[in-house]
Amino acid sequence: MASITLYPNFDPETTSVDGFVSRYVGAGTTWADIHDGAGTDASPSGALMYAGWYKAGGGTTYTYLMRSIVLFDASTILGSTVVSAILSVYDTGSNSHADLDMNVYASAPASNNDLVAADYGTLGTTALATAIPNADLIAEGWKVFTLNATGLAFIQAALNGNGIIKLGLRF
Fold it and tell me: Is the pTM of this model over 0.85?
């Protein structure tokens, strides 16, 4: 059984993209609004991807929420059978303000090689991996998401299609 490691295209993006999308509200808002509202910004290129949030003045309202979107071009292995998969990301550490876990979800950006603010709302609601608890996101280091049966089926569908695997990280 062979193993393959895939990486998204770094800037300039040609067949896949990695970056982040976000929602910013200056005065602070509820978690439901910051989580479910429309995106306000996108960063499709750069050295880092972000997934996190800022609270307004340390209180109970939120001003900023970021989600990472990462696409992989697996067209070289179309038709292959997926038996297991992991997504590894390097976490530079964070300040934890809430008991929120991070997980992997499907994403559906408008383009395979660019991100726009509207892509903020394209991350799915079905977890594709085992979540990483917030307490484990505070320390810097590699975070490994092991994809579950739903995640494996999602990747298999991409390999049976055009080979572009579209994932996202969010709280």
Answer: yes
